[in-house]
Amino acid sequence: MMFKKQDGFTLIEMLIVLSVITLLLVLVVPNLAAQNHDIQNKGEQALIQMAENQTQVYYIDHGRHPSSIKQLVNEGYLSTDEVANGQKKLIYVDGDPTKIAIVENEE
């Protein structure tokens, strides 16, 4: 009784391919997460820079710094719908009205 030769992959070949795919995933996924974090940080820095610039524009227009970020929003210098990565951020001034930081919104 002769067996017909069947084309296909052996179990060893499949294990090697799965091992290579697993190794690639282990190397790529953490790198993607790090890049996502870097992109989010750059977005927050851009938001801070924009808010600081609008503070300077307010100063040029009024001859004084705004008393709060809310004042910039109320007078149309900033928008309340600024978001980063789908999460709303709170912008606050820490002492110096030209220095602005971002914190997570606790809502």
Automatic annotation (TrEMBL):
Keywords: Cell membrane, Competence, Membrane, Methylation, Transmembrane, Transmembrane helix, Transport. It is found in: Cell membrane; Cell surface. Residues 1-8 form a propeptide. One of its GO terms (biological process) is establishment of competence for transformation. Its main location: membrane. InterPro entries: Bac_GSPG_pilin (IPR000983), ComGC (IPR016940), N_methyl_site (IPR012902), Pilin-like (IPR045584). SUPFAM superfamilies: Pili subunits (SSF54523). Gene3D superfamilies: Glycoprotein, Type 4 Pilin. It is a single-pass membrane protein. GO terms for cellular component: cell surface; plasma membrane; type II protein secretion system complex. The modification N-methylphenylalanine is found at residue 9. It comes from the Bacteria. Homodimer. Belongs to the ComGC family. Required for transformation and DNA binding. This is ComG operon protein 3. It comes from Amphibacillus xylanus (strain ATCC 51415 / DSM 6626 / JCM 7361 / LMG 17667 / NBRC 15112 / Ep01).
